[in-house]
Structure formats: C-alpha cells, structure tokens
Amino acid sequence: MSYVGRFAPTPSGALHFGSLVAAVASYLDARANNGSWLVRIEDLDPPRTAPGSIDAILCCLDRFGLHWDGPLMFQSQRQGAYLDALAELTKQGRIYACSCSRAQFQANPLYNCTCLTNPPAEKEVALRITLPSINVTINDTIIGSQTQHLADTVGDFVVQRKDQLFSYQLAVVVDDAEQKISHVIRGSDLYHQTPAQTWLQRCLSYNQPTYGHLPIITNDQGQKLSKQNLAAALDLSKAPALLSEVLERLGQTTPCALRQAPVEEQLAWAITQWDITKVPKRMQDPNAFV
Length: 290
Ligand code: GLU
Hints:
Layout lengths: L3 E4 L9 H16 L3 E6 L11 H11 L9 E2 L4 H13 L3 E4 L3 H6 L18 E4 L5 E6 L3 E6 H5 L3 E3 L7 H11 L4 E5 L6 H10 L6 E5 L24 H11 L13 H11 L17
Helix pairs in contact: 1-8, 1-9, 3-6, 6-7
The structure holds glutamic acid.
C-alpha cells in the first residue's frame, strides 16, 4: 500500500505552534516514507470558519516549505458523500433520532438517553449511532496501543447535528477514506476519538489508516495551545527559528549550523533524519491524557 498522509486543519483561526507541530510531523513522516501529503480544510461548520483563516493557513504552510500534493479538499463541499455514508449506516439499522440537549451529553457522554427506545416527537433531532459492546484496540505508532470499550466509554455519538451539520467523527472518516489516507499523524487531543473512528471505518467497509498521535504542546500555564485559549498566531518572519523549535519538540534536534537555515534546508535535512520513534510519547499536560 502506498503512503498517503494528510494535514486537516479546522479554519477557526490562524495556525498556532501546536498545529504547526502536527503539520510538520505529518509532512516529514509522509516524505520520509516517499509518500504523498495532502491538505484538507475541515470547514465543516461554516459559522466557525474565521474570515481569512483558510488563506492564512495555506500561506503559513507555504512559508514553512510545507508544500502539499494534489488539490485541496474542503469539507464544506462534501455534503453528498456524508449523506451517502449516513444512508449506509441507516440501512444497517445503526442510526436513531435523539432530541436530548447537547448539554445533557456534555455533562456525561454516557448519559442515559432513552430516545432509541422512545423515538422523540420533535422535528429538530440529532442523529446518533448505536455503539456495540465491544473493545477496540488501536496500535498507535507514537503512543502505543490503547483499548477502549465503545459502549462504556464513548457512548452513542452524533453523526448529524440538530442543525443538519455533519459531525467531525463522520466527516473525518468519510474524507480519510476518499483521500485514501494510509497514515494519520495528528495531535493527541484526538487520541481518544480514534477507536470510534475505526468503528465507523469498519461499518462503512473502509480501510483503516495507521495512527500516530503527537504530544500535546502546552502553554506556560499547562493549557493546550488552541485558538480558544488564544495561542499566538505564528510570526512568519521567524519561520526558520520556529521550525527548528518544532523539530526539537519532535525529538529531531537540528545541528546548530542548521538552526537559522532556510526552512527548505531544514526540512530536507529532517526528511533524511526523520525517526518517529524519537517523538516523545509523554503528554506535557498530564491531565490531558487520563
Ligand atoms: N480538524 C482537526 C483540527 O484542526 C484535526 C482533525 C484530524 O486530524 O483528524 O484539530
């Protein structure tokens, strides 16, 4: 099977240091394996798309020398494919309507919803997938294996929201399959979502990519860098220094002579030296991983 990797940013703001780490790691792993590297814009939720952020993300990737292959994919243009997947899951009898509020599930994902046995009368419903009582094991190339009991830990998750938007879980699985992604390297905030995604892949008879989850990069207060906690946008005028900092965090320390070198030179070196086993396994934020 040929290697196809990807970077799949949500355009809710400019890239920050944490997302750059994911972009660089997925790029290096693909290139070091003579693979292709695709970019997918996860603009699934139009109100959350920050104006100008798609251009800012692409410009940033370009400035860091992270040139992608083939056309970009936009989730906002993939409604038909998500509908087909939903129709298949419905045909398999796995989907049910649920009128419970998001808050009820946020407080407890295993909240005892009775919508499966008492279908709601309301028109505005979310569609959930029933999860079986089975263990799913993922052999993560960075963190190691994890086993999750789907019904007891994940709980029936939403595939289509009340506002008709498809969920990230469904879209990511459908799009990874469409783009024939063989390897997913991404942040470990998505580590616990992976067993549910592999379950969807099984239901839809898709190939299962190999997964590797990167340590979360935290700020000085130990919080995950994210647009929500206002992680600083990257200063593109400092791209070479930022790239060598990224490589350092990934355990691929650049020789001193290369630290201020143009990004293309640093990347060319990093491709030849890339060793995924050197990527630290430990989360910097211990609470993120319990
Ligand atoms: N769109 C997600 C994000 O920006 C990443 C999804 C994925 O890599 O599966 O955090």
